[in-house]
Each structure stands twice: as C-alpha cells, then as structure tokens.
Amino acid sequence: MSVRNLAILTDVTRCTGCESCVVACQQANGLPAEKPWRWVKQIDDLSSARWTTIRAVPQDDCTRYVRRQCRHCLDPECVSVCIVGALKKTPEGPVTYDRDICIGCRYCLIACPWEIPRYSWEDTVPYVQKCDFCYSRVMDGEVPACVEACPTQATIFGDRDELLAEAHRRIAAEPDKYIDKVWGEAEVGGTSVLYISDVDLNLTDLEVGISSKEPMPHRTTKILHKMPTVFVGMAALMGGVHWVIRRRQELMTGAAATAETRSSDVTTESPANEDGSAEENNA
Amino acid sequence: MKLRITKTILWLVAGLAPAVLVMRVIHGPGSVTALTDIIPWGLWKGGGVVALVAIGGAGFTVAMLVYIFNCQLFKPVVRGAVLLALLCYSSVGLGLTVDIGIWWRIVFPLWHWQVHSVLFEVAWCIMLYLVVLSLEFSHTVLARIGWQRMLSVIEKLTMVIVIAGISLSTLHQSSLGTLFLATPFRLHPLWHTDFLPLLFFISAIGIGCLTISVATLFVHWLYEKAAPMRAVSGLGAISAVTMTLYGILRFADIIASGKAGLLVNPSWDAANFWFEILLSVVIPVALLSQKRFRVSPAAMFWIGVTATVGLTLNRVNVSGLATLSLTHATYIPSWTEWAVSAGILAAAGLIYLFCVEKLGLFATISAEDVQRARAADSLDPADWRTTFFSAHRHGEARLYSLVFVAAIAGSFAGLSNDAVYGVEPVATSTSSPRRVQVVRRDKACSAPFTVALRDDVAEHSGAATSMALMVDGNRNGRYVLFDHEAHLTRVEGGSNGCARCHHMNKPLDSATSCFECHRDEYLAVDLFDHQIHEDHTGGNHGCIRCHAGAGSPRTLANTPDCTSCHPNMRPANTRVRVDDPTMRDRPSGYMQAMHGLCIACHQERKATLPAERQGIDQCAGCHGDLPAISEAVWQSWL
Questions:
Q1: Which residue among A60, A110, A224 sits closest to B116, beta carbon to beta carbon?
Q2: How far from each other are the two terminal CA atoms of chain B, in whole angstroms?
Q3: Selection from A130, A46, A39 nearest residue B29 by Cα
Q4: Hey, is the C-beta of A150 within 8 angstroms of any chain B C-beta?
Q5: Are strands A193-196 and A6-11 parallel, antiparallel or unpaired?
Q6: Residue A89 phi, psi dihedral angles, 5° rounding
Q7: Which residues make Cβ contacts (< 8 Å) with residue A106, sequence separation at least 6?
C-alpha cells in the first residue's frame, strides 16, 4: 500500500456499538485480559488492555456510540514531549511507540490533549499502551484490525485527503442528518483519525474545549527555541556584570594592580582575587 | 540533645524509604503509588522533582551574589548553599530514577536524543548542573583534605564553573515551567500561563534565598551558635524584592489575560490559589519588608519555612494538584510515596549535617562546637540509656542504627498487600438479578424487544407487560433485560432443559443463580472447599487421593481436574463450555460467564431469524442501556 497519509474515518451514525473493533484490536495486538485494576475507573474505558473502546453517548432518541482511540495527530504533542523519542510520527501517518527505549517518564500521558495513552501500572516493567494504527499490518498492505472487524463500515481506512473528501461528501449528501463538521480536520493542527456525527462529540473529559487550531507542540517549542540564546545571553551578562563590578571595586579601593589589568577575560582574571579572599575566609 | 533528637528523627524517616524502594523495584511503580492513567505524575514528580529543584535554587542564587556581584556579605553561606543545591539535585536525580517506569533507563537521554522535548532539555541541564555543583562543592572537600594542586585548578576555574551553573540554572528552572505549557487542558487557568517559565525562574531565586537562610539558621540553632545574621538578613531583603516582583507579575498576568474573575469566584481552586499566594508571597513579603523581622533568627526561620511551603505548594499545584478539577480525577499519594520522598530528604539532611561537622561547611561552626553539641549531657550517666547509647564511642551509632532498622522493619510491616505480593485486581462482587416490569417494543437501534418501565407508566400504557430479569451483576446501573419466561420456551429439553444454563446447582437447589458461583464480575474465583474434601477423604490420610504421589508438592498444579472424581458436575447437554484449561473448574468472572453462555446460542439462532432481528448477536442487541424512560418518550412511542 503506497498511501502516504493514512487515516481512519469513523461515522458515528453508523456505529451500533457492537465492540467488534475492540475485540479485534485486542486480538491483533495480543493485549492481556482486562482486569479491574484499582486505577481503571471503568473496565470498558481505555486501559493498558484496551487501546480502543466504545463510549456510549445517550441521546433522546437512541444511544450513540463513539469510538475512542489514539487520534494520531498530524503534529503530535506526545511525540514532541517524549524525552527519548520513543514515540514517533511515521511518514505514513501513524504515531508509533518504541518500547525498547521508553524510560517511563509518562510525560506523554499528561501532554496528550485527548487523554489517550495508558500505562501498564500492573507490570513490574510498565510500558505506555496506545493504539499504533496497526502499523505493521498497514505496512504489510492490510487494513487496521478495528477497521477490518467493523460490520457496518462505520469506521473506514484510507488516505486522509480522500477520507476528508468522503466525510464532506456524506455531510453534503445529508445535511439535515450530520453536523457540518469533521472532527479532527483542524483541531490541534489536524488528526489522522476523523469523525463525522449527527450529535456533538465531546471526545475528552476536559472541560476546556479543544478549539485551537494551533498544533500543541508550538506551545513549548517557541520557548524552547529561545533557550540557546538565553544560555549564552545569561553567561555573557554574568561575565559582563562580574567584570564591571570587579573593575569598579578595584578602582574604588585604588589598588595598584589595576594598571596591569589589560585583559578583560574574567575567567583568567578573577580566580586569582577570588583565591585570596576565599583563603582569608577559610582561615 | 536537640542535635541527637534531630538526627534520630532523620534516621527514622530515612529508614522508611528502603523497604518501599525494594518493593518498587520488584513489583513496579504501580504497586507502591496511587498514580493513575489520568494523574500519572504525582508526589514523586511534583514534590520530589519540580519543587525540590526550586528549593535547590539557593545554589545558583548565592553563587551569583558572591562570585558575580562580589558581595562578600554572603560569603559565610555560600558553601552551605552549594551543598544544599547539590543535595537537592541529587535527591531529584534519585527521586526521578525511582519515579520513572523503567528505572535503569534513567541514563537513556544521554544517547537517545530528542531535542524538541522540554523534558530532554531539563534532564540534560540537571545532569550538567549536578556536575557543576560537584565541582563547586569539591572546593570545600579539597580544602579539607588538603589537595592543593587540585584545589588550585578548581579555583582557577571558579568563574567558568559559576557562570555555567547560573546559565544552566536559568535554563532548567524556567524550563520546568515550560514543561507545563504542554498541559493547557489539564492545568487550571489560574496557574496555566505562557509566563510559567519566567515565573518559575524568578520564584526560584526568591525561594532560594530563603531556603539557604532556613538551612543556615537551623544548623546554627542545632549547634548552638550565632548564625551569620547579616548574610541572612540580606538574603531576606533580596527575597522580599524578588517575591514582590513575582507576585506582581503573577497578578498582572492573570488580570491582563482576563482571568481575574476566577480569583473571586468561590471554588476549590480559587481557595487553593489564595492559600498558595498567602504563604508564598503575602506573608513573606509583608514580614521581610520590616527590618525587625529580618534581623531576628526565629522570625527569619519561620518566614523561610512558610515561604518554602508556599512555593512548594505552587510547584505541586502546577504539576498536579491544580489539574484535579479539570480532569475530574482524585489522587491522594499513598503513604509509601510519602515515605520515599521524605526518606530521600531525610538522608540528604543527614549528609548535610555530616558535612557541617566534618568539612567545616560554616566557618562559624568549629570542630569544638560540634563536639560540644554532640555530647549528650542531659542524660543521667548511670542510666542504662547513657551506658548503651552514649558512654561508648559507638553509642551514637547504636542509637541511629537501632532507629534506622526499626524504621525499615516498621515500614515493611506497613506495606500494603499490593506492594508485597504485586498488585492484584480489585474484586467486584456480584449480586442477583432484579425483577422488573417490561413492555415489548421493536426498536431498531438498540435492544430489540424489551424496555424497562416505571410502574406508573406501565399501568397507564395498556400495553402488554411482563416481568424480566435485570441482569446487572456489578450493580453499576448498566444492565441487560433478560426475559426468562421467553427463554424457557426456547431451550431444548423440556423440564431437563434448565441444566443447559443452570449447569451446576447447589445441593437441594434445582436452579442455582449465576451469581452464586460466578462471584466476581471480572475475575475467576476459587469456590473449592478444601475442608469439606479433607473431611470426606479422611483427613491427612486423604491427601494422596487428590494430590498424586506421596512426595509431590500439594499444589493445584499437581491435582487432577474436579471432573475426574465428579463426572456429572457439568451435565452432558449443558451450553457451558470450558475453553480455558488453566481455569481448573474455577468459575470464571460473571461477565465472561454470561457472555460465554449467551453469545454462542444467539449466534446459532441468528440464521433462523428474520432480517429485523439480525442484531441478536451484537452487543447492543442485549445491552440496551436505557435506565429510566420518561412518560413523554413513552407516549411518543405509542
């Protein structure tokens, strides 16, 4: 499969909540049996043993079922914050996880705006657990296990641009049915997992809605890029201040040695004086 | 005496950590922490790393004052400040090692580079700064042991080291704030601001001045010497200015970004915010601005403690406490987390006192002062405690060893089962199904045939109603309506058909309820009554009837299946299948039992059913999830 920007489109109106995707995901990824660990609030929520789940959203007419999974952001925050680069955005689109270098800092867990990554707290050597878009399967030309298992084609797989076009086509075909919005088209710079729906989706538990189109990593990288300047600037400032103060003090005390101070290099100049005073103090 | 009491307490607290650390290594971080997927950063990160780095800000602040600004006033505390920072940062390193999931990979950032990560930058800065601090502190050690050549090398490099230390500190103190710019959706808006890096940096200077003051005053109190109060007062004045600046910036930012309403809106977060500001800014600035408090050792000590607590609260808030309301999560650190954090700090405190005594950390505290303070003079010389703990030259060591070992033993005894045996799933006991009145209705999108009704609605509707079982083993309000009457007629076998589902019954019971054996919602349970089997097989002589081989271990693995003795335990025509041989006849979890029993039948029957009933084998076919239905909705269906 030579699709460059892989994506998944989930049509909430077609999902019957059968959870075939959940079972298929667990089998394809060899996930362990789900257990009621004390940190698992609900056993059918995302957990280290459940990388995708169905959240029931009761409505007046009938319940909607919304599938939660890693959104595979186009500019993912988890990848940006990972201290060792265990999380990677592959050129094909999926965000993958390399358990061989993860140190377990769990920054990705707090940084993900969608609250997706989970941790296998129950293990002596725990790892981050999240959907990897069945990366090895799709590289072999197959479709992700969840998409393959879906009996109603509520969740489909393909090129992101084509799926976006399909989403807009469906909305245009039935404007009364769908809300005119493709979730994941623009939020935090866009995600590879898209949703269309006839009810408003609030995909995270967080009250502050994710409306910004600015990719999450920009919040930190704009500061981070100033850091080399800050480092050098601070060093120069400190060196300069030290030189000025030292010079003024020398002039004020009228030390004869000032005449010899040709070099402005503080690093070689100052320790000699420093030694003297340090010695005195220690004595 | 107070020195001895202080050290005893420190040894006691330090002794709480080792047992927990051992269990953390054996069973992983989940076994000793209360962390969850929603609150994955807890006390060890917020208190043990983020707050402790700020407290260690004393090192670069005092080094800057003494070496860059050449303020000889602060010379008496500079060594103490450098060691304070060194111990804080070492504790941070140790705490971080304990906290991360795979502790031996703490060194991975050395060669796995990810330069876009703030955490990567912080990790490198802290590592490099630890080197810088070690070099700065080596001056004290080298001077003590008299290695003049090394000493002169270090002294020549002093300015380079100091400037490197200041630049590194600027970077990582502020970057700890940058870390939390990545969590705008979790962190309460009163704390989340683009100025976090600047606020973290400024407050680290302000608090650094006070933490070294507290340490200096405490140590001098311990050894009963007059503290260098001119230096301490000066630090207090600098802190007052810095914290004022910090407070102004903090409020200016909140007001400028239009969040002022949150300040007066009564909420837990607003109360938390004001409490934090009171401790970290209002009280310290108000008192430090008055000279009479700055020159008083006691006042300076308590002001410093208040401000340190306040600023620690600030760091803890940003890294966790102020995220609770937006994430709707709760997190209360387990005592084992407290034990590790406090234990590491206590050990650092002991090292600090050791350096005060052996390295002459403070010029004002001489070897004679130490000797005098260490002499336990208030005990009766004839008392056995004096004899054992003081008279002999190892007396002190005996006391501390005893306390330390007792603390280790005590903390072992206090460990939770999860910490000792590895974490176990939480049991969810099941209960019997309830009987409810239902009405039949064909419904396209959910449970196809039954809907629970309130009694009053059912009475007035005139529709055909019947009783159904509300299968909700774990009583979480999500249930399956099970029409038992209807299933009676469908099951093959007539009056013998009961056994196809009720496959094992208790004595004198023709149809035992599912929940009586499948006692946990998710977990297999052990119903086997060993005592009854022992009694029936003749006590100790009966062991070999089940446990094959006289010399073999008496374990479950060494025991035949129950069905080898009880061939009729499961009727031949039962629908129940045992797929998992490792279960050894243990009843599976309730959910698995229900699914195992129902789904296979439903899948078989699907082929015989009309098109509108094809959802019978899907989850939503049974799981309707319609808890209460209003009359208006009901009327709309008629």
A1: A224
A2: 86
A3: A39
A4: no
A5: parallel
A6: -90, 110
A7: A119, A128, B40, B41, B100, B101
Which chain A residue's Cα is nearest to B196?
A223
- Return the amino acid letter for B285: V
Question: Per-residue pLDDT tens for A122-148?
Answer: 999 999 999 999 999 999 989 999 999
Asked if the Cβ–Cβ distance from B40 to A216 is below 8 Å, we say no
CB A78 within 8 A of CB A85: no
Torsions phi, psi for B22 (to 5 deg): -60, -45
- Please identify among residues 190-249 of chain A the ones whose CB lies closer than 8 Å to any CB of chain B: 204-208, 210, 216-217, 219-221, 223-224, 227, 230-232, 234-235, 238-239, 241-242, 245-246, 249
Amino acid at B253: D
Torsion of CA B329, B334, B340, B345, to 10 degrees: 70
Q: Do the beta carbons of residue B400 and residue B388 sit within 8 Å?
A: no
Nearest to B102 among A125, A223, A266 (CB): A125
Q: Which residue has the tokens 């080094």?
A: B63
Chain A's closest residue to B73, CA to CA, is A281
| 8 A C-beta contact, residue B197 and residue B237 | no
A255 touches chain B (CB under 8 A): no
Q: Please, what sign has the CA dihedral across residues B183, B187, B190, B191?
A: negative
pLDDT per residue over A241-254, tens digit each? 999 998 888 888 87
| Residue of chain A whose Cα is closest to the Cα of B65 | A242
Q: Is the pLDDT confidence value at B369 over 50?
A: yes
Q: State how far the Cα of B155 lies from the Cα of A88, in Å rounded to an integer.
A: 45
Buried b (16+ CB within 10 A) or exposed e, B299-317: bbbbbbbbbbebbbbbbbb
| pLDDT at B557 exceeding the cut of 80 | no
CA angle B290, B294, B299 (to 5 degrees): 105
pLDDT of residue A211: 63
- What is the per-residue pLDDT across B527-550, written as a single tens digit (0 to 9) for each? 888 888 888 888 888 788 888 776
Least confident window among A159-163, A213-217, A229-233, B617-621: B617-621
The 3-state DSSP class for residue A174 equals coil
Enumerate the residues of chain A whose CB falls inside 8 A of the CB of residue B187.
Answer: none
Which are the contacts of A130, defined by CB distance < 8 A and separation ≥ 6? A51, A70, A95, A97, A116, A117, A118
Identify all chain B residues contacting A279, using CB atoms and an 8 Å cutoff: none
- ipTM given for this complex: 0.85
Residues of A in Cβ contact (< 8 Å) with B116? 80, 217, 221, 224
Task: Give yes or no for a contact between A17 and A99, defined as CB atoms under 8 angstroms apart.
Answer: no
Asked if the C-beta of A47 comes within 8 angstroms of chain B's C-beta atoms, the answer is yes
Give chain A's end-to-end CA distance (angstroms, integer).
77
Give the contacts of B144 (CB within 8 A, at least 6 positions apart): B358, B359, B360
Closest-CA distance, B224 to chain A, in angstroms, reads 21
What are the DSSP E strand ranges found in B407-562?
434-440, 450-452, 465-471, 480-482
- Nearest Cα residue to B166 out of A2, A49, A56, A238: A238
* Pick from B38, B117, B633: CB nearest A83: B117
What one-letter code names the amino acid at B357? E
